## 1
Amino acid sequence: MNKTKNILLEKFDLAPFSKVKTEDYLYAFKELIKEKKKEINSIISNTDNPTYENTIEALEFSGEKLDRLSKMFFNVNSAETNPKIQKIAQEVSPMLSEFGNDIILNNDLFLRVKSVNNQKSKLNLSAEQMTLLDLSYKSFSRNGANLDDTKKETLREIDKELSSLTLRYSENVLAATNDFELHLTNLEDLKGLPKGEIEAASVLAKKKGKEGWIITLAYPSYIPFMKYAENRDLRKAIQIASGSKCFKKNKFNNEANVLKISKLRHQRANLLGYSTHADFTLEERMAMTPLKVYTFLNDLLKKAKPFAESEFNQLQDFAKNLDGLDHLESWDYMYYSEKLKNKLFNLDDEKLKPYFKLENVIHGAFSVAKKLFGLSFVEVKNIETYHKDVKTYEVKDKENELVAIFYADFHPREGKRNGAWMDCLKSQKVKNGINERPHIINVCNFTSPTNSTPSLLTFSEVTTLFHEFGHGLHGMLANTVYPSLSGTNVYWDFVELPSQILENWCYEKECLDDFATHYITGEPLPIEFIDKIKESSTFLQGIATLRQISLGLLDMSWHAVDPSKITNVKENESYANIKTRLFPDIDICCTSVSFSHIFSGFGDYSSGYYSYKWAEILDADAFEYFKENGIFNIEIGKSFQDNILSKGGTENPMKLYKRFRGKEPQADALLKRSGLSKS
């Protein structure tokens, strides 16, 4: 291939999606790895004494083109993949892992970094520079630089294998999700579903060249069916299909991958001198130790479980009185909780959805950003994207200066993995006196519009959009010198604060009044609905909290122990969740084999799933501060921007939080908000 024709080898600002052929990626990765190798060699061969500038900064800014390529490629692999892209990913991932080890295990480079680290007390560095130096040294010492050559080679092999296994795990989850469809030809089978959901299922069937209706495991299809379908047998069928994906004895089975990944992670941690993978990971988290995570989760379990059991009994009694149901199963939960919610609050998603047209909710998120941080979002059509559904915006500040480029990708597709996430296509940094602004993307899976209806969101989807937009703001408002400390490059149990705090605005009348209007009549969301949204915010929160605790404990059951004796994935999972189980277990279902947060490598919450609940304490405490002074208080908004959003990982997160809040966070606000406090 003629490398001059491969735009990925050039320096570019906006990602040039339309100019890239799939085969360009692999060639570009190989060439840009070579290019970064030359940059690393020039640092090592520098005959001058090691300094902060010629070693730490030089290392930080090396491989910029490779970094841009990686961000672009792996975003496409998550949001618009295909077999060719996946094949390249399988080749590239171990290649990048091996190259990463070439750097981390290079003794000459480590000696230069170590030399600078040894003289740090004399260097008069800023807080951000000191953080970068500390992290640079730790990136070597925590990843094998002090090992002998034999152990270094073992580490290389482990990392190479892990990169392939986690990618294969992720591909299996996507493939198994796409592999299932419930094809219905009898309208009676859709009884209970709202008209819009039936129409969406019909549109999906037509796309696949079939008559009738199709339900899939993609969330916009799966969730409404589980909430509204009266046919209990079909709810059971689709629930089991979802719970058993990657657990069936077929080519998508992930049991061996789970066992191998957990064992390799443990072996890697031992090699580096740590008892478990969790000990290794948590050393660089706010929680610090597995014991502290277990203490946190078990304390929360003690508070939440009585509420959860009471809620479960209430739901079971309700189902029995309504339909004579003797035993509540997991496939009944969404269906009866929606009916109970409607009875208690006279409020269900179908009443709310007409007020949450996707475009209006986007406007609402943008409006919050404007009121708190002075940001304006202007949609532009001349920015290239990887799919026609992706919208693009220029983000400007009060002085009309460019703050960021924002990409928004909101609807499900076959080549797009389930869920919602924020990603970065270009990091923010300051180089040669120029503050290079970031390119941020939000990816979600909301119901697509039909011929007769626009995309209307459930309230849960509204909070999801605000959540991911909060991550997006963390990236957009980044204002650091170094890219590795910019935006969401923070401790993993701190990263959810900006996202989770933004969800709080969705419950406030002052915010809802700005965007929640009926998509046909233009009427604002009635005040009684707003009151009920707020009143219902604690509905079944005990069960929801127990679910999050169970996932946190499941994560720790794989990563805070020696997994070498675990031979059965299901048995380990059942034991881990014994204290949190409310519904009868289903033998043929298993969470671990599709628990992408901790096993796919994407985002990698391994030993870190607890952080969602950990960050809820932070966000509830922080939002209490806003509520005490006005949810659109400009001064507090500026303080949140200056001390949290713009600082990235430049300082210890507790220092940043205390600077914003004036004190350490207290759990009282979360327990009160969740209805888990008896006071």
Note: The chain has a mean pLDDT of 95.
## 2
Amino acid sequence: MDREQLSFDIVGVGCGVATLATVLRLLKRLREDPATANRPPPSILIVDKGASIGAHTLSGAVVDSESLADLLSLDEYTALPRLATVKQESFQYLTPTGALRVPWVPPVMQAEGYPILSLSAVTRYLATLCEKAGAEIYCGFPATELLYQGDRVVGVRLGDKGIGKDGQQRSVYQPGAEIRAGLVILGEGACGLLAEQMIQRHRLQGHNPQTYAVGIKELIETPAQQGTAGTILHTFGYPLDSRTYGGGFVYRLSDTLVAIGLVTALDYRNPNLNPHDLFRLFKQHPAIQPILAGGKVLEYGAKVLPEGGLHSVPGLVVDGAILVGDAGGLCNSLRLKGVHLAVQSGLAAGDALATCWQQSDFSAAALQAYPQQLQTSAPWQELAQIRNVRACFHHGLLPGMLSVGASVVSGGALPPGKLSFGTDAAAMQPKAGARPCLTPPAPDASAAALQLDKLSALFFSKTHHEENQPSHLKILDPAKCKSCIQQYGAPCTRFCPAQVYVLVPDRQEIHIDFSNCLHCKTCQIKDPLQNIQWTAPEGGGGPIYTKM
């Protein structure tokens, strides 16, 4: 096939905070260094599969902003789009009917004084700074394959456009271009398509496999509650059972705007568990419902978070490519924070790439300066301190909480060693003997606008895909699918937060409505038989987050 070939010095995949921080730091370093200030900067292209910058960006987001302050000038940091600043915080254990307030917020969870941001807005802001510094950004162009010369990454291939449902080329067909580059920055987010290809090919896996959680979030507009902006609440316990890790959050972004979410770890065991049902139960809890009363949903979304911690972080560099942010498993699952780690990885990568550019050397040996610098940073030391905590939560809430206390008191020395765990898919148990899970009761009329089923909620994600294209979600073996239905009771119909998978009872098969997909990749991660494959759809498809 005759493909257009483009050449750049550096190409970034995924227009998220980690990629943008890397590019911005690199260009600033080169501009400020007398040795390179008068040289042309490297040509840099960033490609993203979303329809616009920030369209696929979702986070809490109460942000530990120290790394952002290091990245930005004082004027740039002052102009950062903020929604509020945390002025009051609480930490509560929820029971089915009540709440027990923890008398003090654990130090690792404290956030007073931190900014509350819309991460999609921050992404757009950082993208503007990168473009002013000389980078180019193209949206609607998914990168689907790494290009190699031997074992060296030499670029990426973009996805084709204009292929019909039947797999045949339509009249508007356009083959995806090949972008050749001296370095590829992979910042696609958790479970990134190319990042996973690179990790598997180069055997970069950490001591443990990565474990994930799915976070479901809504922005809700409520009647004005004066003076509440900057009030945040973190919860654990109900509606999650004692063997399922996770927690909820409620952030007051203004007197009329609330961000609410529930994070459910995907190493749960019960095949009947439905994260979206749990999210609805969370909103109905007596401690949460009054905050949302009279409100309406403005935006809905879901994403996965890499929660494995230090022992699940893969190797971050190979010849010609690096992993940054969530793509490299850089997230603090205890704090529910990954933005500061994404920015910190960008700072370390940008510094290393400045030296590599000066020396015209993007080999793995030269790129090792990136993880070496990252490992001296304060956010990395956070990961080191809690390196075994996530493994302890795999055994239940009590062992997990004890491990948190031990790690804080011992400065990370306890629990000792490298505790292990398996994959999220392998954790699921067969439906035989599985307990029924909680389901939300039908809401009364006053709460109907807040208690949305999956399809109704999906409307507020503005998710859209070109219908006349092959499904980007594939069941690899139909026989395995029937076996999964028999063994596990079609769990894909429950763990997907967007109703992509529907059981057809009379044929005992799964119908896929790929147009509903939020690109969270929960299905590929949690499918117990690993029989679902997520690939990139035609460019521009997926959710369109503007306020998340």
Note: Residues 339-359 form the longest helix (21 residues).
